[in-house]
Design a protein that fits this description.
alpha/beta; Rossmann fold; Arc Repressor Mutant, subunit A; 2 domains; 6-stranded parallel β-sheet
């Protein structure tokens, strides 16, 4: 079984040691590197090609938001989970806009962090309950501008958006709608462009906020 390759980016040695100690006990996870700042994290992603990056926000040389954006621009397949002490909107929203697939606080239970890593790799979006309200507030403020955009989507794009809102990966969406993963990727790109969103996490949250989830 292939292991999930994880890169830890945090400027505190104690935090990195603690995460490494616990993650090493997981049979399906392998920590392949550690970064002391955002700049080093970007460099190590290029060199080591991790599946998931655990990213702190407040770091020297380059903060977590800038590092997340840089990583996502050069490698769309890397999943980034923000792991921080900040739960306020001023930190949450920029991180999600930059491309983070998950946002967790450092008080998270170890087992929950492991599940977050596994779920994010499958294409799901994972937010700590304490930050969800900030995301919803942000979406509410922009609802009037974006709600009308839903009409720009085709019938198939709306079906894909519905599946995205359920946290499904491209592979799962393809299976559910009987289309190829390549076609799903194209639809997701179109959805993001039409709704003026930057990633699938924002698309899923947008769909949930606007009640766009059809019943099974």
């Amino acid at each position: 079984m292939a292991k999930i390759k994880v890169l830890i980016a945090d400027d505190h040695h104690v935090v990195r040691r603690g995460l490494l100690f616990f993650l090493k006990t997981q049979r399906d996870i392998e920590v392949i590197g550690e970064a002391k700042n955002g700049k080093e994290a970007v460099e190590l992603v290029t060199e080591l090609k991790p599946d998931v990056v655990l990213m702190d926000l407040s770091m020297p040389e380059m903060d977590g938001v800038m590092a997340t954006k840089a990583i996502r621009e050069m490698n769309e397949t890397v999943k980034i989970i923000i792991l921080t002490s900040y739960a306020d909107q001023d930190h949450v929203i920029p991180a999600i806009r930059a491309g983070a697939s998950g946002y967790q606080l450092k008080d998270i239970e170890p087992d929950e962090l492991v599940e977050t890593i596994r779920d994010v790799l499958k294409g799901e979006s994972k937010l700590h309950p304490k930050v969800t309200s900030h995301v919803m507030t942000h979406l509410t403020l922009g609802a009037n501008q974006k709600t009308s955009k839903i009409s720009d989507l085709t019938k198939r794009e709306k079906e894909v958006l519905n599946e995205l809102a359920k946290g499904k990966s491209n592979k799962e969406i393809a299976s559910s709608l009987f289309i190829t993963e390549k076609t799903v990727k194209t639809h997701v790109s179109n959805i993001l462009a039409k709704l003026q969103l930057s990633d699938r996490t924002q698309a899923a949250l947008y769909a949930v906020k606007n009640g766009y989830i059809e019943k099974e």
